[in-house]
Amino acid sequence: QVLLVEKAGRRSLFLAGLTGMLVSAVAMTVGLVLLSQFAWMSYVSMVAIFLFVIFFEVGPGPIPWFIVAELFSQGPRPAAIAVAGFCNWACNFIVGMCFQYIADLCGPYVFAIFAGLLLIFFLFAYFKVPETKGKSFEEIAAVFRRKKLSAKAMTELQDLRGSEEA
């Protein structure tokens, strides 16, 4: 796993894992919806579950721990990892406790909720999460500073254009 992360990069593996999980969640939904019409859809659902787990283990399972450790300097890193761990386990607990109720409510479309969330996670990661492979903390922090400065510059530019029109 570590060799794959070092070779392919954190962000690309994370995005690939999210994409695979999204496709698997859609396949699980289709399999469950069409199960009453086609008996072989049970195999589609089963393969989709296995692929979902595989893609999770390649991307969203381990990669966030790499990224959290690399986004923070030595001082705040333990606190950041503790907060990330708390959020991870709290969300796992909530999903575990609520899944049966949501499945009863949504029926075969229960995994469509997961697909929607995975799409949101993918878009967030695509636009906001930088590649941290081979970069020092200072280089990663500089990426965030550049994004913040460019957003501020765009706002100032819009303000200037607005005052010119008045």
Account of the 3D structure:
There is one protein chain. This protein is an all-alpha fold and 166 residues long. It folds into two domains: 1-131, MFS general substrate transporter like domains (Growth Hormone, Chain: A, Up-down Bundle); 135-165. It has helices spanning 2-8, 10-33, 41-58, 63-71, 77-106, 110-128, 137-165.
Give a short overview:
This protein is 82% helix and 0% strand.
Estimate the global geometry from the Cα principal axes: elongated
Topology as H/E string?
Answer: HHHHHHH
- Structural domain count: 2
Number of strands: 0
Distance between the termini: 58 Å
What is the typical, i.e. mean, pLDDT? 86
Number of alpha- plus pi-helical segments: 7
CATH homologous superfamily descriptor of the largest domain: MFS general substrate transporter like domains
CATH-scheme architecture of the largest domain: Up-down Bundle
CATH class of the largest domain: Mainly Alpha
Largest sheet: none
Class from secondary-structure proportions: mainly alpha
| Residues in helices, as a percent range | over 70%
Radius of gyration: 20 Å
The share of residues in extended strands comes to: under 5%
